[in-house]
Write a structure and sequence with these properties.
Blueprint lengths: L11 H15 L11 E6 L5 H12 L3 E4 L13 H10 L4 E6 L4 H7 L5 E7 L5 H14 L7 E5 L6 H12 L4 E5 L13 E3 L2 H5 L4 E4 L15 H8 L14 E3 L12 H5 L5 H20 L4
Parallel strand pairs: 1-2, 1-3, 3-4, 5-6, 5-8, 6-7, 8-9
Helix pairs in contact: 1-5, 1-10, 2-10, 5-6, 5-10
The structure holds phosphoric acid mono(formamide)ester.
Length: 298
């Protein structure tokens, strides 16, 4: 794999291999030394989980890490992003993790680099492939028989790159059923995979996995608005609502969480909640992705 830009570039076996490798790292049955290599995080949007876990993953592999401070970079003097990327490439940085509000920009940058691997750390509403990979790893650990699973994604599907990447990975991995539960105004114009419903009660019925999404206000158009109170009345995941799901349901959220809006405090702390397990797995899955890229000659 030269770059990791979106889930559609992977096949089912490659996803399985990444999950197995990430689990080996998690079980500490694998130790690797990539101290010859370096990674730079280039984040134009806020991040805690993705940026820090790429840094941790790279350091676990003994790589050196640079976090580019965009506010103090030469872009403030007018340098365009492609020139910044080419500059870092000329310095010999091996992997660039890029997060940007513009959809497709990471693909454009990947086409215009020759010696550097590019990882999409999230581009606008388009894709967040490593989030989908760590989510499927977290699900497989608890519920390995994917073909029988009923999964519900709840919330702001329209503005969510996570929802897009999850639809791609669930289709690829042939999960039993996917339900997309969203208010009418946040319905995507077309779903990649899954059945849309507005009813939380109907959508959660007998599901094995619930994935709630953050309301992504930063991606609302000026014409789009949200009545938070109305949303909470209809869609906040509460202990009462999870009774519609199977008794051994697991609950995921990519984070960051708006407590009390997408999900109730009691559920966040409940034993069914795997939110912090997702964060933990993020480091191991990103180690697997880094190893896979560095083992590919370019
Ligand atoms: N899930 C996720 O991408 O979180 P961050 O914005 O904190 O990286």
């Amino acid at each position: 794999m030269k770059h990791l830009l979106e889930i559609s570039q992977l096949n089912q076996q490659e996803v399985k291999n990444l999950i197995n490798l990430a689990l080996e790292f998690k079980n500490q049955s694998k130790n690797e030394d990539y101290s010859k290599f370096s990674l730079a995080n280039i984040f134009y949007e806020a991040s805690t989980r993705t940026r820090v876990s790429f840094e941790k993953a790279a350091k676990n592999l003994k790589m050196s890490v640079i976090n580019l401070d965009i506010a103090r970079s030469s872009e403030q003097k007018g340098e365009v992003l492609l020139d910044t990327i080419k500059t870092l490439e000329a310095m010999g940085i091996n992997i660039l993790v890029i997060r940007h509000a513009q959809e497709g920009i990471v693909k454009f940058l990947a086409k215009n680099t020759s010696k550097t691997h590019i990882i999409n750390g999230g581009d606008g509403k388009h894709a967040h492939p490593t989030q989908a990979l760590l989510d499927i790893m977290t699900i497989v650990e608890r519920k390995p028989n994917l073909n029988n699973l009923k999964i519900a994604i709840v919330g702001d599907i329209k503005h969510s790159r996570v929802a897009n990447s999850l639809q791609c990975i669930f289709k690829l991995m042939d999960i039993g059923e996917l339900r997309l539960i969203t208010p009418n105004e946040w319905k995507p114009s077309a779903s990649l995979f899954g059945n849309l419903t507005h009813s939380l009660e109907e959508g959660l019925k007998d599901v094995d996995v619930i994935i709630t999404l953050r309301i992504q206000k930063e991606r609302f158009l000026p014409t789009e608005s949200l009545n938070i109170d109305e949303y909470c009345k209809r869609y906040t995941i509460t202990p009462k609502l999870i009774n519609y799901a199977k008794s051994d349901v697991i609950i995921l959220h990519p984070g960051p969480v708006n407590r009390g809006i997408e999900i109730n405090d009691t559920i966040i702390e409940a034993k069914q909640s795997l939110i912090l397990e997702q964060v933990k797995n993020g480091v191991f899955m990103r180690m697997a992705v880094l190893k896979n890229l560095l083992d590919t000659t370019i």
